[in-house]
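Collaborator request, handled under Task 6.
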Amino acid sequence: MATQTTSKPTSQPDPPLISPPTTSTGQTAPSPARMEDTALVLRALVGDLAAFDELVRRYRGAVLAVAQGVTGSFDRAQDVTQDAFLLAFRKLAQLDDPARFSSWLYAITRHRAQRFSRRESRSEPTDADILDTYLLEQSHEIAPNPLDEIIRQVEHLSVRGAFGKLPEEHQIILRLYYYEEWPVKRIAEFLSLPTTTVKWRLHEGRQRLKRSLSGALEVQEDE
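Structure tokens returned to the collaborator:
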């Protein structure tokens, strides 16, 4: 008579404590790095700090460029950058159209940079509130990036000096185009400008920078 064998049930792994986010169809949602800005804004609105960190990563260089153009100082620009992102997170619910996040962030940055410059002239201290402190502790992107300082230090002095003499509107566009490697269309959306204006300022900025650098080289040769 054949002997029947009973198979032991295979043990199943314990389910994860926190399930990955899923879409309405039950599929795993894409990582923040692969999402559009609009989706990231909506995720951030419900408290997803990873989504907001991705927005900070995408726009940190642009915000820093705008802040430096307004304040004229890299160190002050870093403070403004941090302040602008903290304010953007707090005011995110006031953004009517998530698709306009970039231009909304630009407006916040310019306003904070101008206020910071006036505040610096009066030497008024500021204190971080509880939410700001929490965000700085939890976010991996808002705090100053040491790489920014390294890049600043290795820039050639003559180029940096010539760049600093350009009008603010030319500085910002050149930084976004060459440092951040943004296309003209994205720069136009961020600055709320027609693409023709961006192209003209980019051309004019190049010409001004070239003339300024040529003058600096002639001075060095005379010395």
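The cover message to the collaborator said: "The chain has ten helices and no strands. The two ends are 108 Å apart (CA to CA). Please let us know whether this matches your experimental observations."
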